[in-house]
Structure formats: structure tokens, C-alpha cells
Write the C-alpha cells for this entry.
Amino acid sequence: MKFVYFGILFYLSLYAHSQQKMKLPPYLKKGDTVAIVCTARKFMPEEAKPAIELLESWGLKAKLGRTIGLDSCQLGGTDVERAADLQQMMDDDNVKAIWCARGGYGTVRIIDLLDFTKFSKKPKWVMGFSDVTVLHSHLNTLGIATLHSIMPFTVPNAPEKVKQTLKDALFGTKLNYTLPSKSYDVKGKAEGELVGGNISILYSLLGSSSSISTQGKILFIEDLDEYLYHVDRMMYNLKRNGYFENAKGIIVGSMRDMHDNEIPFGQNEVQIITAIAKEYNIPIAFEFCAGHQKDNRTLVFGSHVSFEVNDKEIQLQFK
């Protein structure tokens, strides 16, 4: 009976989390300040110039964190330094949004050093992708929306249309995306909260307090430079943790530079994801314009969206 009791509590907690109302941070206005910080790999001040110029062209001010320019092997400062910098920007009332400088690895090393008490009461937009999925996921469990977007490191190679999607999201202009569908997309319609990020990070967070709920939601996943059997392993682990059982749909972004072994795995990334998710009869869109590619358009995680895949188009509309 104890196992039944705790099982019921577990699923009730998942349901409660899936039903919570997400907080959208205030949209920006001209004159607002955006902080740029390192939560993972190092980033030099000269590398920040294109991002600063972009923010200023939108009428915003840039504030470089203390971690910009720090060099701790791969990382932009020690764990303590990166956590302290992010904490200061989260608690600074003059900072209205936080832009993570670049991905790589390292955000998970500081997530448990952060105090989100004040931030939860007065949230602000956190922006980035890849390793920033740690923050996307953790903030989602706290009921706070975030922006999956380009980062200062990727600004120089980002097309204007991609930069515009970040500006639109920050200033409160509604995002709508329509793309041609492919023969291997899985047709269907769905509505729900958009969640997700880099699949390797989502996989690494399973079982922790930062792991998201996908119940009644639409899951976005993307990755770069992985072996196909790694993708298969991660997908099976997400499946075994219930990620697809109650999801409403799957959007697959860029899955670039996948590798195979000398003895082929036998399936590509599309076939792997399709086979594992087939039993759930949910719409799946592949090669969506987000992730590790130049066409990395902004997604509002935590926002309610409508998602449709038909014979001609993929439509993603933010409510």
C-alpha cells in the first residue's frame, strides 16, 4: 500500500506541475539593460562587441558581467565566480534580461549554487541555447518562461531574420513560424506549453530537480555532433522516464553533424526518433529552424503554442 500511496503522490505532483500557470517576465522597452554573463565556456570582451552593438541598435543597454574575460581553462571563471555573476544579475533590479554568452559545458556545475527566491518573484528573460538548457529546464520547473535563442557568441553569424525573432520576443511581438513540411514528418495537430532544449542536456538532467515535466506539453529537442547510437540511447531513456507518453507533440530542431561507427547503427536520427515515438500517435516535425545552425529562431519556452503538421506546412504559433 505504501508503494501505491507514494506512486499516487508522484503522479499528482507531475500533474500539478503540468497545470501551473507560467510567469512570462516583463517585455523590454527602449532604455532597458541586458546583462551578458558566462555560465559555461569563456567569452572575451572583444567577442562581445557584435552583441553589444546589436542590443544598442534596438535601443537597449548592455552590461558585461564580471565573468566576461575570465579564463579558467574551458570555463569563463570558476564555478563560484560564474554563479556569483549570474546571481548578481538575477537580483539586480536595473537588469531586465540576462543573455548567456555561449554554451559548451558548465551551467550544470553552478545551478545548485544559485538562489532563485527573488528571481521567482520578479522574473526576467533568460536567453540562450545549447548548455543554457540547464537554465531553461530549471526555470521551467519554477514556472518561469525563458527564451531559446541565439547567444552573443553566435551573433556574428546569425542572419538578420534570426536576430529579429529575438528582438520580437523581447519586446512582446507575437512569434509565428510556417515552414514546408517533409514526407517523413508525422502529421497532426496539438496545443500546449512548449518546453525542451538540447537533448543531451535534457538527458543529463533526468532524475534531478531541474528535470522538466512534458505532460500535456509540446517537446522541442535538438543536438549537435553526436553518435547515432547516443541519440538512440538518449531517446530511450527519455521514453522510459515518461517524456513521450503524455506529450502532445515533438518538434525536432537541428540535428547536425551526426556520426556513425564503422559498423553502421542502421538508422539515422529521423528514423530513430520516429520509431521510438511512433506508438504515441503525436505530431512530429523535423528540421525545425532552431538549434545549432545559422537559422536559429527564437522560441518562448513556457508559452502556450498551437502546433500543426500537414501535407504542406509546419505551423507553430505562440499564443
